[in-house]
Amino acid sequence: MNIALIGYGKMGKAIEAIALERGHQIVLKIDETNVADLNAEKLAAADVAIEFTGPHSAFGNLIKTIDANTPVICGSTGWTERLGEVETKVKEHNGSFLYASNFSVGVNLFFELNRKLASLMATHPEYSVSLEEIHHTQKKDAPSGTAITLAEQLIENLGGSKQQWVNEPSDKPEDLFIKSLREDPAPGTHTVRYQSPVDDIEIIHTAHNRTGFATGAVLAAEFIKDKKGIFSMKDVLGI
User: What is the 3-state secondary structure (H, E, C) of 77-135?
Assistant: First the structure.
């Protein structure tokens, strides 16, 4: 499979290493020095593109890739207020698109655990819930996309007790507090905590390096290569 890497920082290099190990070829690498090369002519050599940049460039990169009719995997976070526009564009072009706030297989299993636990806790209002995420100091957005996904799952499954997430402490009972910490080195730790007067319940996912994220992104690219439509990691993993 021929892959275009849109974003060639630490994550892009980790994806490249996994892709080469799995027998794929990298036919295009885009970073801040050659953004003009992100065009239909260059993308024509790729079976799939993997986009890992940042909040301010992801949307434009995706639009260019979809316009070029190249299937695209996106792991950039902090831009998803425009996700609906991208999905509309994909449908108009009969394209292929997969977005995930986190591509790690372990994190996606953690998402399912979080959803299930929240549904169980919905009938136990004596427990208060909070969420904490820790990442390295170079991370460009806060809270993390993974934390937002976890928060949205909690809001959906806790029976209406939480209405919105906030990134600062709040005394409103309907607010779900996401505490964001930036420390080095920290590839990513996410904790969902339920506290009551008698006990605490916690579920935690801790990443040790970028390998899990990179492997999941390549698995997603392999999955989407010959498909049309809008997908998620649940489709890739058969969840």
Answer: CCCHHHHHHHHHHHHHCCCEEEECCCCCHHHHHHHHHHHHHHHHHCCCCCCEEEEEEEE
Q: What is the CATH number of the domain that holds 128?
A: 3.30.360.10
Question: Are 111 and 96 found together in one domain?
Answer: no
Cis peptide before 185 (omega within 30 of 0): yes
Other C-beta atoms lying within 10 Å of the C-beta of residue 173: 11
41 is written with which tokens?
């002519």
Rounded-to-integer distance, Cα 118 and Cα 110, Å:
12
Give, for all 239 residues of the chain, the pLDDT tens digit.
999 999 999 999 999 999 999 999 999 999 999 999 999 999 999 999 999 998 999 999 999 999 999 999 999 988 999 999 999 999 999 999 999 988 999 999 999 999 999 999 999 999 999 999 999 998 878 899 899 999 999 999 999 999 999 999 999 999 999 999 999 988 889 999 999 999 999 999 999 988 999 999 999 999 999 999 999 999 999 98
Q: Can you tell me whether residue 19 is helix, strand or coil?
A: helix
Looking at the fold, whether 146 and 183 belong to one and the same domain comes out as yes
Active site residues: 135, 139
Return all residues near 195 (Cβ < 8 A) that are at least 6 apart: 127, 128, 129, 130
Structural domain boundaries, residue 64: 2-103+211-237
Q: How many domains does the chain have?
A: 2
